[in-house]
Amino acid sequence: MPFRTARIDVDRRFFSFALFGVLAFGADVLFFYLVGSAVDIPWLQKVAGFVAGVSTTYLLNSAYTFQAPLSPQHYGLYVLSQMGGMAVNLLVFLLVHGSVHTLVALVLATLVGLVVNFLGARRVLSGSIGQGARVRRLLSRGQ
Predict the structure, then answer these.
(1) Is the full-model pTM beyond 0.85?
(2) CB atoms < 10 A from the CB of 24, how many?
(3) Long-range CB contacts (within 8 A, 24+) of 11-19
(4) Is 36 exposed, middle or buried (0-12, 13-18, 19+ CB in 10 A)?
(5) Triad 11, 13, 16: Cα angle to 5°
(6) Residues near 3 by Cβ (< 8 Å), separated by ≥ 6?
(7) CA proximity to 130, closest of 57, 88, 68, 50
(8) Structural element, H or E, at residue 46
(9) pLDDT tens string for the chain (143 positions)?
(10) How far apart are CA 43 and CA 94, in angstroms?
(11) How far apart are CA 47 and CA 83, in angstroms?
(12) What does the alpha-carbon distance between residue 138 and residue 140 come to, in Å, rounded to a whole number?
């Protein structure tokens, strides 16, 4: 029975993570256009949107999905993990774009990126595995 409980918890966390990703997309778009109303520099707009989106998912996933404490160390590792997912997303898109319809390539890249981002976030924010456990031990020594 412990396996079933662990699976349900992962399913709940994955759904929560995906839902918060949708909310973060809203923050990304909002900040993209807010910055765009002040300056017409597309790359700056995109960076502002990304920071808003990743910060939104960090706050929500820390509090609800993984019940992890907020810290600058977690935030930095979280941003790096999500940038890794963004790179995988782009790589998958570039690999399949020429052989399938663009929409299929976008969906496939997004789904693979979602899984990679979830695994990265879980590794950083979960106290039971990987880097998250190391960060928690380091933070608890400092208190």
Answers:
(1) no
(2) 23
(3) 13/65, 13/66, 13/118, 13/122, 14/118, 16/61, 16/64, 16/65, 17/57, 17/61, 17/65, 17/114, 17/117, 17/118, 17/121, 18/114, 18/118
(4) middle
(5) 110
(6) none
(7) 68
(8) helix 42-60
(9) 455 555 666 789 999 999 999 999 999 999 999 999 999 999 999 999 999 999 999 999 999 999 999 999 999 999 999 999 999 999 999 999 999 999 999 999 999 999 999 999 999 998 544 444 555 555 566 55
(10) 20
(11) 12
(12) 6
Please, are residues 48 and 35 in contact by the beta-carbon 8 Å criterion? Answer: yes
Amino acid (one-letter) located at 37: S
DSSP string, 98-116: TTS-HHHHHHHHHHHHHHH
The DSSP letter of residue 103 is H
What gap in Å lies between CA 13 and CA 119, rounded to an integer? 11
Q: Which amino acid is at 44?
A: L
From the list 29, 59, 58, 57, the residue with the least C-alpha distance to 45 is: 29
